[in-house]
Structure of L-lactate dehydrogenase complex protein LldE:
Amino acid sequence: MKVGLFIPCYVDQFYPQVGIASLQLLEKLGVEVGFPLNQTCCGQPMANSGFEHLTGGCNENFIDNFAGFDYIVCPSGSCTLHIKEHLHSEQYETQAGQIRKKVYELVEFITDVLKIESLPARFPHKVGVHQSCHGQRGLKLSQMSELNAPGFSKPGYLLNMVEGLELIELDRKDECCGFGGTFCVAEEAISVKMGKDRITDHTKNGAEYITGGDMSCLMHLEGILKRQNSKIKAVHIAEILNSTN
């Protein structure tokens, strides 16, 4: 299979190591990966702010870059969900529809398409998983705690394959961190309080690292951790799954 690696703009600009880890991890798992150099923003920030009618250029560019791949894989639940639900084109709607069906978040792709049963990874630390809202409730990467249904966690399934890693139990395992894209700008005080609550939960349960599939949420938590002079670090799940230390 030929996979197109879709890297969100904030990862490209602020956390390039996450893109590199995603590439290396996929190649370790035997996937042929292509990285279209002309890719840019998927349009999610505009759409979330009420300006989806202005995302046409982003949509056309995305189609131009990724239409030729068997799958498109992205280390971000929110950007993946945006493409799945909002990629449209008046000129190339057939291609847009095909892309919507073959775009996957990184963890989702590894568990549901590759169906791996082992990983050559080592990360000897206590790790708490932050279940991002888009990934959990949009992509169904893990079960919602309010449902009376069997629990599951695709990130947890992969992290349990990592040698030396200890997953900690949280009191409120699927609570929002408060980032919410532009919400953290428009409602700063509420956003920060929600982030502090998530960090408190991880701290009291002994986490050394907070991980997840959305670097945007982790960036929000990382900022609060730094202001608190906390020793806890935020790290994308791709970095852990690719780690051999």
Remarks:
- The chain has two domains: 2-114, 126-241.
- The longest strand covers residues 2-5.
- Strands lie at 2-5, 32-34, 71-74, 103-105, 126-129, 166-167, 209-212, 233-236.
- Residues 36 and 65 are 6 Å apart (CA to CA).
